[in-house]
Design a protein that fits this description.
NuoE_N; iron; iron-sulfur; Glutaredoxin; binds FE2/S2 (inorganic) cluster; Thioredoxin-like_sf; 5 helices
């Protein structure tokens, strides 16, 4: 439908939608948790934070919880490198996020 409306080929639309993570083929959860996985954040525990998020939510990057409340995504730099690990919950940016702090943030979402 998008290709028809914009007069692009289906392949062009598919390429853009699958390349950029902000485009989705299915609706996102009510809130999106984005965990930075770029180098500065990885050097201070972003990988462990992502693993913790997966254990707590039951979903990995690009997935949505069964109740539709939360989508978890990875992002490569939120511009908050000095305060890593950085996460974004909805529109709000958070720095120096520990697993305990992430649990608190997730508690607010749920
Ligand atoms: S590397 Fe994580 S905010 Fe820049």
């Amino acid at each position: 439908m998008i290709a028809d409306v914009l007069n692009f080929s289906v392949a062009e639309v598919h390429g853009v939608v699958t390349f950029y993570r902000d485009f989705r083929r299915e609706p996102a959860g009510r809130t999106t948790l984005r965990i930075c996985q770029a180098e500065a954040c990885r050097s201070v525990g972003a990988e462990e934070l992502a693993a913790h998020a997966k254990r707590r939510t039951g979903v990995g990057f690009g997935e949505t919880t069964y109740d539709g409340k939360l989508t978890v995504d990875e992002v490569f730099c939120l511009g908050n490198c000095a305060l890593g690990p950085a996460v974004q919950v909805g529109e709000k940016l958070h720095g120096r996020v520990t697993p305990a702090r992430l649990d608190a943030l997730l508690g607010e979402v749920r």
